[in-house]
Structure formats: structure tokens, C-alpha cells
């Protein structure tokens, strides 16, 4: 089993910054891609940013140039630095991980989600 725990969500003013963190714990021995999704009230969950184990990244168009995703493979952490926040960034942000190896299970692609952390951008 693998648990993802997000933190860092808060109330921010337009133009402000927040840094989200996600820590993976449990029986994962190799984590592949890690992603941040968000879901605004009444909306669908959408991909915000993704990072491969090799550090390759991609971003959704609305956040390009403002958000930066990074990871620490040794500590099973992923971060989302969010700058120049806008009110339409308000959402519940979820961490997602594809685990390639777990103790006691065959190698594969096991998908896990965190519970989400709330980001609210308002003056």
C-alpha cells in the first residue's frame, strides 16, 4: 500500500505564491511519473503538471510560466511551486503517483491518489 499526503494549500492573494508538497509513504520502492491535478468547485479533475522520474516535465497551458513541478526521488517527494496565482487557480489540488514497484507485489503500474489540499486565491 502507498499513501500520498499533500500539504501547503492555503488562502493566497492574486499575484501571490504557494508551494505544495506531496509525500509518498508505504511500500513503494520505485515511483514513476508523479502528477498534480486540480478540481475546481463544480468542475472536473484536470491535470496541472507532471514530472517523470528523469525530471522531464509538462504543464497544462493555463499554468505554463507560472507553476513549476519538481521532485526528490530519494525522499519520494513532489512539489508544485505556484507563482502569480490567479482566482481561477482556486481548486482542490491532488497528488497522483504511478508506482512501478511495491514490496510484495509484481512490478507494474499502480496508481495512487492523495486526499487533496485546498488552494484558494482571493483578495
- Output the helix-strand order: EEEEEEEEEEE
**Helical/strand content category:** mainly beta
Number of helices: 0
Q: What low-confidence regions span 5 or more consecutive residues with pLDDT below 50?
A: none
User: How many angstroms does the end-to-end distance come to?
Assistant: 40 Å
Strand tally: 11
Helix content: under 10%
Radius of gyration: 14 Å
Assess the beta-strand content as a share of residues: over 45%
Mean pLDDT over the full residue set: 96
What sort of overall outline do the alpha carbons produce when their principal axes are compared? elongated
The biggest beta sheet reads: 7 strands, mixed
Chain-wise SSE layout:
Elements: E1 2-7, E2 11-12, E3 18-26, E4 28-39, E5 45-51, E6 57-59, E7 67-72, E8 77-82, E9 91-102, E10 110-113, E11 117-121
Parallel strand pairs: 2-11
Antiparallel strand pairs: 1-3, 3-8, 4-5, 4-9, 5-6, 7-8, 9-10, 9-11
How would you characterize the overall build of this protein?
The chain has strands spanning 2-7, 11-12, 18-26, 28-39, 45-51, 57-59, 67-72, 77-82, 91-102, 110-113, 117-121. It is elongated and about 50 Å long. Strands 2, 4, 5, 6, 9, 10 and 11 form a seven-stranded mixed sheet that branches. A four-stranded antiparallel sheet has the order 1-3-8-7, with no helix packed on it. It has 123 residues and is an all-beta fold. The termini are far apart. Helices cover 0% and strands 59% of the residues.
Amino acid at each position: 500500500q502507498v499513501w500520498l499526503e499533500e500539504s501547503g494549500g492555503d488562502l493566497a492573494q492574486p499575484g501571490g505564491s504557494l508551494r505544495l508538497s506531496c509525500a509518498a509513504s508505504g511500500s513503494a520502492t520505485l515511483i514513476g511519473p508523479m502528477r498534480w491535478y486540480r478540481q475546481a468547485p463544480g468542475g472536473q479533475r484536470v491535470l496541472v503538471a507532471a514530472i517523470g522520474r528523469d525530471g522531464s516535465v509538462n504543464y497544462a497551458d493555463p499554468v505554463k510560466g507560472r507553476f513549476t513541478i519538481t521532485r526528490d526521488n530519494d525522499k519520494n517527494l513532489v512539489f508544485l511551486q505556484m507563482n502569480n496565482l490567479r482566482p481561477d487557480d482556486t481548486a482542490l489540488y491532488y497528488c497522483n503517483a504511478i508506482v512501478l514497484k511495491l514490496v510484495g507485489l509484481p512490478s507494474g503500474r499502480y496508481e495512487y491518489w492523495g486526499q487533496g489540499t485546498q488552494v484558494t486565491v482571493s483578495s
